Amino acid sequence: MAAHLILIDALNLIRRVYAVQERPFMQIKQQHGDELSTSTQEQVLFNTQKNCVNALVKIINQHEPSHALAVFDSQQPCWRYQLFDGYKKGRKKMPEHLAQKLTSIQDAFMEQGVDSLTSDEDEADDLIATLAVKMAFHGQKVTIISTDKGFLSLLSPNIYLYDYFNRRYLDEEHVQSKFNVKSSQLIDFWTLTGDNTNKIEGVSGIGQVNAAKLLNQYGSLKATLNATDLKPSLKEKLINSTEQMDLARKLLTLKQDIPLGFNLKDIRLTTSSPIPGINDNIIAINGDRN
Predict the structure, then answer these.
(1) What is the DSSP code string of 16-71?
(2) Do the domain assignments include residue 81?
(3) Helix residue ranges, H only, 64-116
(4) Could you tell me if 252 and 187 are in contact, meaning their C-beta atoms sit under 8 angstroms apart?
């Protein structure tokens, strides 16, 4: 019997739940121009924590994992900001009162047997990718709970991505339908098109349609760059965008080799017994566990 690790993209879950709880009050605020009162903020936060815990319970009941971990972003800018100061520029910051509630939500998750992890240097996405790839390498199943399209590049026979809010798996069929490429081509695809969500620029004049056409014809960005039958104007665009593509690839690629420092047995669900034939010492991660 294989282990099954659930990795929850915690802020992806929490911020979406919070937005739903806040929305009715924001509509009142817009109508009357008043700031949300302290008591209203507290009510929104209470409802957010309650619904996050409810979501966690539903996730565990549905997926029946043997191990689980909620992974949080650091509150400090990660290494990607050092490479590119425009990274995620303009994205709405987390409300301070919600940021102050995260520790309480982590405690509530722990009451359900799910520990939390944050890192000072890396994003949650990098930590999740490292854990997922290492588990998959050992033939174990991983389900990532997130709506973040960046995880689609990790899809494999052992790595799944589940959208809790729309109750669906984001699989190869989804990738093909949305981007018209394979999941293994997505980093090349976004290197060409850029990623507007994170304010990462691609190659000027190449959109999703042309990027998919090139990758379907040549197989990869490297093969595209080495092709001898490209139109001169396209070849020039690519050559002139070499530095930008290199930067985009670095920003888009999730780390998969973060040093590991705790064992899989440490994140086994309290309701889950050791699995015969599974060595709980195969996984660990370096960071601050809360």
Answers:
(1) HHHHHHHHHHHHHHHHH-PPPPHHHHHHHHHHHHHHHHHHHHHHHHHH--SEEEEE
(2) yes
(3) 79-83, 96-99, 102-111
(4) yes
Same domain, 45 and 163: yes
- AA identity, residue 120: D
Q: What angle do CA 228, 230, 236 make, to 5 degrees?
A: 105
Provide the 3-class DSSP secondary structure of residue 86.
coil
Q: Examine residue 175 and state whether it is found in any structural domain, yes or no.
A: no
Chain centroid to CA 176: 19
C-alpha closest to that of 214 among 248, 197, 244, 191: 191
Tokens of 82: 């050092």
The answer as to whether 228 is a domain residue is yes
Tally the domains of the chain: 2
Say which CATH number the domain at 62 has.
Answer: 3.40.50.1010
Q: By the 8 A CB rule, do 228 and 176 touch? A: no
Q: Where are the alpha helices (DSSP H) in 145-231?
A: 172-179, 186-193, 208-218, 221-226
* pTM assigned to the model: 0.91
In order along its 290 residues, the chain shows pLDDT tens digits of 689 999 999 999 999 999 999 887 766 555 545 566 778 889 999 999 999 999 999 999 999 999 999 999 987 888 999 999 999 988 888 989 999 999 999 999 999 999 999 887 889 999 999 999 999 999 999 999 999 999 999 999 999 999 999 999 999 999 999 999 999 999 999 999 999 999 999 999 999 999 999 999 999 999 999 999 999 999 999 999 999 999 999 999 999 998 877 788 889 997 655 555 555 655 554 444 44
Task: Tell whether 12 and 124 lie within a shared domain.
Answer: yes
